[in-house]
Amino acid sequence: MAGTARNGRAPGNADKGQKFTNAGAALGGFVGAMGGSFVPPVSVTVNNNRNGVRFGGGGGSHAESLLPSPDFTSPAELRNYCNTLRAAAVTLSIEVAMGAEILKGVLAAVPDPEGRAFGSRIRAAKVSRKMQRAADDLRDAAKNAAACYSTFQQEFEEEINRVRHRARRPQQPVMNWAQQ
Question: If both were cysteines, with which of 91, 110, 112, 164 could 119 make a disulfide (CB 3.0 to 4.6 Å apart)?
Fold first, then answer.
């Protein structure tokens, strides 16, 4: 069958998916020829927040923030704040680390203008290293948030125990089976 593509269609009738598949294969072959660097798949996630979330800039309700309000009027509020901060920082740390790896892979595929053998990989590593440091700093922020509450418990143990003693729940009444 001269004049037909592998999928049985005429070469001029290739659909868009086939076009992009061929482009991806060409890029993959190019990247492989550049030293076999790893180019991770890229996925895009779109979060549509229609409630108008704002970050920073004062004046607005604190309900729009990622963290609870820093009232700190009780140990429970401090624990909630530290746990929320830790969870957010861990999640962001993972996202940023993945972004750094994706950035490194994408930039490594760009041809070096001077034609050096591993020039693109070296430049990509320099750029992505900064993003990886941001991920490391977010991971450290998560550790420090957890350590903050732990240190609070250690430093204010006397006050916490004094209040715990007063705040004990009364014991449940015991059923007296002999009394009928």
Answer: 112
Count other C-beta atoms under 10 Å from residue 86's C-beta. 19
The mean pLDDT value for 31-44 works out to 49
Q: At how many degrees (to 10) do helices 75-108 and 119-155 cross?
A: 170
Helices 119-155 and 157-166 cross at an angle (nearest 10°) of 50
7 touches 18 (CB < 8 A): yes
pLDDT tens digits along 110-119: 888 887 878 8
The answer to whether residues 104 and 37 touch, using CB atoms and an 8 Å cutoff, is no
Chain position carrying tokens 């798949």: 41
Percent of the chain, pLDDT > 70?
Answer: 61
The pTM assigned to this predicted structure is: 0.55
Q: In this structure, what are the phi and psi dihedrals at residue 144, rounded to the nearest 5 degrees?
A: -70, -30
Q: CA-CA distance, 26 to 21, in Å (whole number)? A: 8
Whether 44 shows a pLDDT value over 90: the answer reads: no
